[in-house]
Amino acid sequence: MRLDGVGRRYGVRGPWVLRDVQLEVPAGALLRIEGTNGSGKSTLLRLLAGIDRPSAGRITGRPRSAYVPERFPAALPFTAVDYLTHLGRIHGLRGPEAGRRGAEWLARFGAAAHARTPLAELSKGTSQKVAVAQALLAEPELLVLDEAWTGLDQGAREVLNRAVAERVADGGTVVFVDHDPQRLAGAADARFRVADGRLLPHEESDPMGDEAPAPGPGVVIEAEGAPGAPLPGGPDGTSAGAPRLPGGTQVVPRPDGTTRLTVPAVHSDAVLRALLTARPPWHIRSVTGAGAGPGAGPGDDAPASAPASNLASAPPPASASTQASEPASAPASTQASEPASASASAPDEAP
To answer: What SUPFAM superfamilies does this protein's entry cite (predicted)?
Structure first.
């Protein structure tokens, strides 16, 4: 997707919230948007998701998109699962499939018990889980997250972190805003700052593909590919069309023909999926905890290596959180009744 000279203002004589935005949004990338309150971050995200239209300039090539707004409209006449089914159908899913996926995402977020609860009766934290689930259930090519972690309990935040990694590993693009500077630290392909109505590359942004490892526990994956097979999305012979491995994965070829990949734990499922679904697939010899982080070796306080020869063709989804929801700090919603929007294939051009 491409933004050329995009600007947005509210009202013919209103001040410009955004001016002359130039942005290439590549496939299979994680982009972070930063800026102070009121700088125009949310306006930019709505433009990216197709919720809003530019007052000037042109947006082309928008893929199938989904959006989590900063404020979720909880006062709607649906139960949680009925709302997810409704939004799934808007995304193009058949009703039974939309309902099944909605129920699965509620379970992953630890909210299965609230599937039949009216939205107006949900806590703010559980409402936020529904808001995130509606964007994830259709596996969008572009996922836009505006403070989506706010109000989630710790277990649900980890589920969302993994879901973001899965989207990127599957070739999707995720654009997000979050108030926590450590959110997905080191995993973003690029960071941008909105200031004075303009979108600027962040002065500390790492170049694409040269990211720092995320802090926290790491996982070491020992894998073996077919002779001559390139690592999927890896730096040493990227497979054609394969997404880049997420999370600043460190790759070390071994003399015995295997490859050691060290990755933040939050991205390990996505990396395993990329390896197992490659053509030809890679054989996973072991998966080992790295202890202190992705830079640590398997001997650094790591548990014993677990053989992975019995792994399925794709790793299972992360376990659903069973922790209680935390209250959200976001005020009541002012968004439209349907926060997610199917993408428009035609260019968005100002009149």
So the answer is: P-loop containing nucleoside triphosphate hydrolases
- Predicted TM-score of the model (pTM): 0.64
Torsion of CA 38, 8, 146, 340, to 10 degrees: 150
- Spatial distance between the Cα atoms of 176 and 41, rounded to a whole number of angstroms: 10
Tokens of 101: 């996926």
In angstroms, how far apart are the furthest CA atoms of the chain? 68
C-alpha 25/C-alpha 32 separation (Å) is 11
β 2-9/190-195 pair status:
unpaired
| Strand bridging mode 173-177 / 30-34 | parallel
The answer on pLDDT for 302 being more than 80 is: no
For residues 233 and 242, the answer to whether their CB atoms sit within 8 Å is yes
Mean pLDDT of the chain: 78
* Alpha carbon distance 76, 332 (integer Å): 12
Q: Dump pLDDT digits (tens) for 33-47.
A: 999 888 999 999 999
Tell how strand 16-24 and strand 2-9 pair up: antiparallel
- C-alpha span between 211 and 264 (Å, rounded): 12
Q: Is the peptide bond before 280 cis (omega within 30 degrees of 0)?
A: yes
Q: In what order do the strands lie in the sheet with 173-177?
A: 65-68, 142-146, 173-177, 30-34, 190-195, 198-201
Going by pLDDT thresholds of 50, 70 and 90, the confidence category of residue 248 is low
In angstroms, what is the C-alpha Rg of the chain?
21
Confidence of residue 70 (pLDDT cuts 50, 70, 90): confident
CB contact at 8 A, 258 and 224: yes
d(CA 58, CA 55): 9
Q: Residue 291 CB: number of other CB atoms within 10 A?
A: 16
End-to-end CA distance of the chain: 20
Angle, vertex CA 29, rays to CA 135 and CA 1, nearest 5: 80
The C-alpha atoms of residue 130 and residue 132 are separated, in whole angstroms, by 5
Q: Give residue 198's pLDDT.
A: 93
Residue range 114-134, pLDDT digits in tens: 999 999 999 999 999 999 999
